[in-house]
Structures are given as structure tokens and as C-alpha cells.
Write a structure and sequence with these properties.
Length: 436
């Protein structure tokens, strides 16, 4: 039976797009406490079902699919720019297709503005009205207001007209940044993208017997099963090591390993890889916020995902991507050495290379060299950095990783960084190899 929390989430999901939601209303309709309703609404907001806007309230919005994540709703724009809704609240759930800066004459605005657009403009009332009539929402910069008849038109057309105290350039930068951040998120592979769902995953009940385990092993050709209680919650995990030599009439709860490691659907695959390496785990149960079983993720799933991550192109580029691109294989030097140019965005307020960028340089260079030899995926277990001297902007560094040890599961790499022939930093890295 679904919990009250789950019932509220399902109720919110069933509401029409654009409907306003309140804690008191949900509590009254579903006969739950206001505290329970509040927590469920916040969870729904995290999952993308609703958006809460100051002075407007909480509204049901269209839940974006992952492939469409780079598009923003007008409700999200309000939160990004710390804006105020002047009219057209009923259209806040709609998605904007592009934004247009209205720093042009009316003839040009007519050519560039259309349905689904967000026109960013100052206190030009005639432009506000025109944009609404073409199906575009309006964002007024500089903290200006608009006429009452324009607000009324926005309400009639269900197209938001917003106001913000920021200038046009700042607003465009903020919206661009939000879209860019979501493009980066789009590329991060999560557990939910690769898990084997509950209806396809083999599990075992805690009151089943060792004999049942052998039957499941024969049926599925697997030996590791999450153990569930009567409420479908994960209470343990049972493997061949747990049942070998045990009486076949014993119940699984007597032989299982209790309180196993679990992961959520929003956990990144990289984090799961680290957990599996450190703990020597082959399979992890996937659970929801109530610890209910939702599927499993295996080491093979993780390896395939990591290989896919390496092949896919990056649309939204993080600082780590930028640093990695700057690592060039040096010519006429050791084949395992790299050149690296310090660009302005990689410096601190003093104009010298930041500690975070230096850390990324040495770990990435060491990982590349170690991967070439071991032909596998690595996870950094321990890193010691001796940052001896600063490197200023536009400096070209020589990065020389040297493998000290390379075992079957572990590796040790020493990295030296030179600037103009002078040693400016050293690092020692211990890493683990993700076995295939």
C-alpha cells in the first residue's frame, strides 16, 4: 500500500498543468497533516512536478524529459532573475523556446519575436503589448512597470509579463547560464538512466528459504539478490557466500547481510563506481526515499556507462573539461609528458593558477598515462599535492607523470610540474582499477 507521501506525489502528478497548489488545500483534500503535505510538495518540486514562486505560490508545471532539459519554464525564469510577476500568472508553466533582447526598433522586433519567445526589453509599453499579441512573454528589465491594460492583456492571453531590477545584459547572462548548467546536467549519466528496473530485477523475500535462493539462482543465473520485507523495502542482500553450507530450510533473514549499501536513482554513475570499488561490490540495490526497492545496478552496467561517457560529445563544458582540453601531448619530449597553458579563467584573484585547477591537471595527466598502460577505468583513492611555487597567467607548464607501481588492482603515480625548467609542483597519486 502506498504511503501518504506517495499518495500526495501521485495526486500532484495527476493535477492539470498550470494549476495552483497550496499546503492547506492538499492537506484538506487528502486528509493529511500540513507538515506531511509541505514535505511532499517540496519533494514534488525537487522532482520537477511543481515550481514555487515568491508572491505567486506553487504551480503545477510540465515535467521536462531529460532530452528536453535545456528548456526553461517561465516559472523557472522568475526564480533565476529574482523577478516579479506583473500579469499572466496562468502561463508560468509554459516553456520558452528562445529569448530575444529587444534593444532594436519595432520593425526589427516584429521580425524576431514569435510564439513561445521571451522578449527582454525596458519600459517600452508599445513593445510589451505587441510581444504579447504575437504569443511571446515579456521580461521588463531595470525594475520598470507597465500599463494596466497590458497586464490585463497578459492575463487574458495567459502569457507571463515579468519584471526584474537587473539590467538587460545581466538578465541575458543569468538565463544563458541556467540553460548552460542544465546542458551540463543533461550529460551526466545517473543511476536511473541505466538501472535494471524492479519488474525485471530478481529479488528475494526475507521469509523465503535457502532452498528458494538455489531455485532463483538456477532460474536467473545470478547469485546476488536484494532481500525485501513485506513492504518492499530493502533489508539486506544475500550472495552465494552467505548460503553455502547452510541448511536449505533456513529463512533468508537468518543468513543475509543486513543493512546493505544502496543508492538512489539520482546518484551519478561515477559515485556508484567509487562505492563498488571501495567495497568490492558487484551489485547495488536502487531504492527510493522510503528505502523501497526500485531495481538494481551491476558493475557491468557501470562500466558500459563509463565507456559511453568517454565517447559522448560535451555540449555544456565544465572547468574540468576545459582543463583536460588544455593538456597537449608534448613533442620532442617524453611520450608520457604534457604541455599545459594557464588561461585567465584558471587563475585566482592574484592571477596565478588556482589550487583546484592544479589538482585537476595532475590527476588528469596521471589518469591518462595509467589508462594507457592498464587499458581500464581508474578511481583516485588518495592524492598528496606539494604546490611549491605559483604559476602565473599565460605560463606554459610541462607536466610529467611517472608510474611508480602498477599492480592488478592498484597503482601509484608520481607527477612533476615544471615552469620554464623550474620545478613548481609535485603530486603523489594512489588509484584503484575498476575491473571489467
Amino acid at each position: 500500500m502506498a504511503t501518504k507521501h506517495e499518495q500526495i506525489i501521485r495526486h500532484i502528478d495527476s493535477l492539470p498543468i498550470g494549476e495552483k497548489i497550496s499546503v492547506r488545500q492538499i492537506a484538506k483534500e487528502l486528509k493529511v497533516s500540513e507538515g506531511t503535505a509541505y514535505r511532499a510538495i517540496k519533494d514534488a518540486e525537487n522532482k520537477g512536478y511543481v515550481s514555487t514562486i515568491e508572491r505567486v505560490g506553487t504551480i503545477r508545471i510540465e515535467r521536462k524529459k531529460k532530452e528536453n532539459i535545456e528548456k526553461l519554464t517561465f516559472a523557472e525564469v522568475v526564480n533565476i532573475i529574482d523577478g516579479q510577476v506583473l500579469g499572466g500568472k496562468a502561463g508560468l508553466h509554459k516553456t520558452l523556446t528562445k529569448f530575444v533582447i529587444g534593444a532594436m526598433k519595432m520593425d526589427a522586433i516584429k521580425r524576431y519575436t514569435g510564439p513561445g519567445n521571451l522578449l527582454i526589453v525596458g519600459n517600452r509599453t508599445d513593445v510589451h503589448e505587441f510581444a504579447l499579441r504575437t504569443g511571446a512573454a515579456v521580461l521588463i528589465t531595470g525594475g520598470f512597470d507597465t500599463n494596466e491594460d497590458v497586464k490585463q492583456l497578459a492575463d487574458e492571453l495567459k502569457l507571463p509579463i515579468l519584471s526584474t531590477s537587473y539590467d538587460t545584459f545581466t538578465v541575458a547572462t543569468m538565463i544563458n547560464r541556467a540553460i548552460y548548467d542544465q546542458l551540463i546536467k543533461k550529460e551526466i549519466i545517473l543511476v536511473e538512466d541505466i538501472l535494471t528496473p524492479e519488474n525485471e530485477s530478481a529479488s528475494i523475500q526475507m521469509k523465503e528459504t535457502v532452498s528458494d535462493w538455489y531455485a532463483k539462482k538456477y532460474e536467473t543465473n545470478h547469485s546476488r539478490f536484494p532481500v525485501l520485507d513485506g513492504s518492499n523495502k530493502v533489508v539486506g542482500i544475500v550472495t552465494g557466500k552467505d548460503v553455502i553450507g547452510q541448511n536449505e530450510t533456513l529463512t533468508i533473514d537468518k543468513v543475509m547481510t543486513r543493512n546493505p549499501l544502496t543508492v538512489g536513482k539520482k546518484t551519478s554513475v561515477a559515485s556508484v563506481a567509487h562505492m563498488m570499488i571501495w567495497e568490492g561490490i558487484e551489485v547495488l540495490p536502487v531504492v527510493d526515499g522510503q528505502n523501497r526497492f526500485e531495481g538494481i545496478i551491476s558493475r557491468q552496467d557501470v562500466l558500459k556507462a563509463l565507456q559511453m561517457i568517454q565517447r559522448q560529445p560535451h555540449v555544456g563544458e565544465t572547468i574540468d573539461d576545459t582543463v583536460t582540453k588544455q593538456l597537449d601531448v608534448g613533442e620532442n619530449i617524453d611520450e608520457n609528458a604534457f604541455y599545459f597553458e594557464v588561461t585567465p579563467q584558471m587563475t585566482n584573484h592574484l592571477g596565478t593558477i588556482s589550487y583546484g585547477v592544479f589538482t585537476t591537471i595532475v590527476t588528469d595527466a596521471a589518469s591518462q598515462v595509467f589508462r594507457q598502460q592498464k587499458k581500464g577505468e581508474l578511481a583516485v583513492e588518495n592524492l598528496t599535492i606539494y604546490f611549491l611555487k605559483p604559476a602565473q597567467m599565460d605560463a606554459v607548464l610541462l607536466v610529467q607523470p611517472r608510474i611508480l607501481e602498477a599492480g592488478r588492482k592498484f597503482g601509484k603515480v608520481d607527477v612533476e610540474v615544471f615552469n620554464g625548467g623550474e620545478l613548481i609542483g609535485k603530486a603523489l597519486m594512489m588509484c584503484k582499477l575498476i575491473e571489467k
